[in-house]
Amino acid sequence: MNYSNTPQWTEVAHSLGREFAARAATHDEEDTFVIDNYAALKERGVFSAAVPQELGGGGASHPEISDMLRVLAQYCGSTALALSMHQHLIAATVWKYRHGQGGEPLLKKVAESQLVLVSTGAGDWLESNGSMSKADGGYVVSAQKHFASQSAIGDMLVTSAPFMDEVLHFPVPMNAPGVTVMNNWRALGMRGTGSHTVKLENVFVPEAAIALRRPRGSYHPVWNVVLTVAMPLIMSVYVGIAQKAAELSVSHTRRKKTRKPQVPSLIGAMNNDLVAAEIQLNDMLRIANNYEFEAIDRNGHDILARKTNIANAAIGVVTKAMEIVGGEGLYRDFGLERLFRDIQGARYHPLPEAEQVKFSGEYLLRD
């Protein structure tokens, strides 16, 4: 299936987003996955938007995918964040394809079938978790993988597990024997992402499925690729949420006949945070350079530093928006309360601030 004639992806986000916004509160209140939204995304070919046109996809650039996610987040943060987890796996595979390192079969398959890819990389990081044992023709894996967004309806789990002193990376079909979605995503925010724990119990992984072997516990160049393409997409979601919160609070203030004397200063400070988040997101995209970058440590370090700064700035925007609006912002019907809960998730993507500053400090102290 070829989606190369699909309209500009930001326009698709606006078109679908208006429909998604009408369902966002219900998914949030009921802790239900945004399944209807995903059906609509599939119909528009969004899951293969970033796949190169010559492989049957939409041919969207990395910045275009970022912009689509940022816009979509203003309508439904959960849909945008869950979608970013698929899109960043596609982006990493596009980087491999463009750099002559494979990836073509997966990209073609996604374009043909609109497959949904589920990531567990954030929880696994350098150590990974679980156990692997050798078996005829491959390995047997047991593990519990947390925060697996879209696992409610995903087609392919892209994960890893430790084997002896290595970590092995591999895909597992979500319908493979021994794979169970635990249906345990009950969270403060991003409640519609379906980020359940996925349990692997004696799941067979063929030797041919092993995509990468790396030393366990050590930073590997693969992260310089994954972080550089993934974090701009993920953080686009949080910048979109911050933009929506700022818009709501300013519009609300304009409509009021009277306002407290500190409100203009609060709005100015909120705007400073928003500008900081937007500029550093743009700088992330500059580093990613539409996949034209090398897998060097400097890129991984620079992306992680900007991730922390964007997270802090975006949280600052929504926190100030709540203060600007005042008590009315606590009402769910106003729309700001959900944004305040959703924005908290920005802290927990790799790397959380305490880990990031240590990582950056160690990098900067190298000879």
- Major sheet summary line: 4 strands, mixed
Question: Could you give the count of β-strands?
Answer: 8
How many DSSP H or I helices? 11
| Structural classification | alpha+beta
* Average pLDDT rating: 96
The fourth-level CATH homologous superfamily of the largest domain is Butyryl-CoA Dehydrogenase, subunit A, domain 3
- CATH architectural label of the largest domain: Up-down Bundle
**How many discrete structural domains?**
3
Provide the β-strand percentage band.
5-15%
CATH class of the largest domain: Mainly Alpha
What's the helix-strand series? HHHHHEHEEEEEEEHHHHH
What does this structure look like?
- The protein is α+β, with helices and mostly antiparallel strands.
- The chain has three domains: 9-115, Butyryl-Coa Dehydrogenase, subunit A, domain 1 (Orthogonal Bundle); 119-215, Butyryl-CoA Dehydrogenase, subunit A, domain 2, CATH 2.40.110.10; 222-364, Up-down Bundle (Butyryl-CoA Dehydrogenase, subunit A, domain 3).
- The chain has helices at 9-30, 35-43, 62-73, 77-98, 104-113, 121-124, 222-255, 263-288, 297-325, 336-343, 353-364; strands spanning 117-119, 131-135, 138-148, 156-163, 166-173, 179-181, 196-206, 212-215.
- The strands form two sheets. The protein has a four-stranded mixed β-sheet. A four-stranded antiparallel β-sheet has the order 2-3-7-6.
- A hairpin with a 2-residue loop joins strand 2 (131-135) and strand 3 (138-148).
- Helix 7 (222-255) runs parallel beside helix 9.
- The termini are far apart.
- Residues 1-6 have low confidence and may be disordered.
